[in-house]
Structures are given as structure tokens and as C-alpha cells.
Amino acid sequence: MKKKRTFLVVALLVAALSLAVGYAAITKNLSVTGSASATTKDDNFKVRFTGTPTTTDGSKVTATITNELAAKINVSGLTTTGDTVTATYTIENYSAELGANLALGSITNTNSEYFEVTASLDNSAIAKGETTTLTVTVKLLKTPVENQTTDITVPVTATATAI
After folding, report:
1. What global pTM score does this model have?
2. Mean of all residue pLDDT scores within the chain
């Protein structure tokens, strides 16, 4: 009986090894190779001025959007030291997928003796479909006297970067 059991165990081991060797001989390795690339779409990242700008005093300041990437502010009629006007512009991220980080560039005030120009963003990071506001403030620092040049150019730049 013991010989039969030993023979049966050995026979089962030989059968199992035969199956394993036979299975290994018929297995196949599958692999996937290739590459991937992405290209930019011209219309994927869209940030623009939108809506109608608002001002604090329409008799002294006008604000307009000249195209979706440019806006304008014109100030006149400031007469007393400390007179201040603001224009507020809406910036929209209408990208289909991308958020935007906004950063204000340096403001080059061409007549800092008479004017102070500041700008601020309500939110510097806007997700797709969101808006924020850009506020430009012009303040008269001292009252001009006769025959003094008090003109100013007000360049304010905001740069949008995709995130």
C-alpha cells in the first residue's frame, strides 16, 4: 500500500511538472509599444476683457475696451490735490480646459510728479469660465499751475499664463 501511495504521489508530481512545462511552452508574451504627443490648439487658452468697464466719476474718467486684449482709460478734469478716479475692467478666462494666472507688469507713469497710477487684480488665479476684475486708479498728487505740463500716459499690463 505504501508503494502504491508513493507511486501515486510521484505520478502526480510528474504530471504536474509535465503540465507546467507544457503550459510554459505554449504561453505568449504580449507587449504594447508606441508614442504619444500633444499639440497646442490656437483656441485652447483664452483670456480677454469682457463686459463694460465701470468708473468712479464719468465726468472725469472714461474707460473702454478697444479689443478683447486691450482696454483704455482717459482721465481729465482732476483739479485738486488728492482727486482720485478709478476704472474697473472685467477679465474673463473663457478657455475650454485651462486655468489662468494673472500678473501685473510694472506701471510706467510718465509724469510721477503730478500723478500716481496704481493697479490691482481682485484675483490673480482664475479657473476656466471664471472672471476677475482689474482696477486702475489715477490720483492727482499736486495741483498744476499755469503753463505746467500735466499730461500722462498710463500703461498698465496684465499678463495671463496658463495653469
Report:
1. 0.73
2. 84
